[in-house]
Structures are given as C-alpha cells and as structure tokens.
Specification:
Helix 5 runs antiparallel to helix 6 (119-135). The chain has six helices and five strands, in the order αβαααβααβββ. The longest helix has 20 residues, at 40-59. The chain has 161 residues and is mainly α. It has helices at residues 19-25, 40-59, 65-72, 77-89, 102-114, 119-135; strands at 34-38, 95-98, 140-141, 143-145, 148-150. Residues 1-29 have low confidence and may be disordered.
Length: 161
C-alpha cells in the first residue's frame, strides 16, 4: 500500500495572497509579472460586481468572513485600491491588474449566479470577464513603485507655480 506524505505549507500568504502582494511585502516583485490596465469604467464595474457578490453571500449566510471574502472575490479590492490611487496620481490610463487576479472576478460571477445575484450586475460581470479575456492578450510587465504594482513609465504632468 503506497504511503503519501503530508504536504507542508510554507509561510501563510497574506489575504489576497498572490505572488505580487507577497513579493511587495518583501520589497520586491517576482520576475515577469504580466498585467494589463483596467479603464475607469472597467474598474468601477469590477468593484460593483465584487461588492454585490459579497453582499449576496453575506445575506445568504454563505459561511464565515474569510470564506465570503474568498468566494466573492473581495480579497482583490484591497490590492486594487492603492494601485488605482497610484495610477491616477501618475496620470496613467488605467488600474494595473495581474492576469492571475482574473480568478477573483470569476469567483464573484459564479457565486452571483449561484446565489441569485441581480441580473444586471451578473451581465456586467460576464461582459467584464469577456473584456478581461481580450485584455490579457495585451499584457505588459508590471513593476513595483513604492510597493505598489504599476505599469509603464508615465509620470504626472508638471505643475506650474
């Protein structure tokens, strides 16, 4: 009879623990992170879908707080907020999002469908997933600036005195 060894976990990841957040905590970014930019309307739609999924799961008693956060995709929001602030402060065209983070929106949409989410929000979620499928074909290498994921080298316009 074969014996299986127990798998050991290394350090527990941070909430929303993807490679970018773990590496950013260490002061660096892992090599070749592929990301794309969400436009402001796409960012707002993503926020709306995830928040609606979170509220539906809470209303249906979908589990403890961590389970709800994971199932609704809400663990993505604290990662995107500083990126949005940095992107718009730098004059960037959109909010950086890693290709690996699409799974959070997928979880939100699937659970919205399962837990009776509003049809309009569900349609927005599916439309956004289709759009992200296009955007992931247009990725670029992301980097950390002051611990925040960014794309490109664009800097804010100079202010006149």
């Amino acid at each position: 009879m074969p014996r299986f060894r127990k798998r050991r976990r290394t350090a527990a990841p941070e909430p929303g623990g993807d490679a970018a957040s773990a590496a950013a905590a260490d002061g660096g970014m892992p090599g070749d992170l592929r990301a794309f930019a969400l436009s402001l309307p796409e960012y707002q739609a993503l926020f709306r879908v995830i928040e609606h999924a979170r509220s539906r799961l809470e209303a249906c008693g979908g589990g403890d707080a961590e389970t709800i956060r994971n199932a609704s995709g809400a663990e993505l929001l604290p990662l995107l907020l500083p990126r949005a602030g940095a992107a718009f402060a730098r004059g960037a065209d959109g909010v950086p999002m890693l290709v690996s983070e699409i799974r959070h929106l997928e979880a939100a949409v699937v659970n919205l469908e399962s837990y009776g989410g509003h049809e309009t929000v569900l349609c927005d979620g599916y439309a956004l997933l289709d759009r992200l499928d296009v955007l992931k074909g247009r990725t670029e290498t992301a980097r950390a600036v002051d611990g925040v994921l960014t794309l490109g080298q664009r800097t804010p316009p100079a202010t006149s005195l």
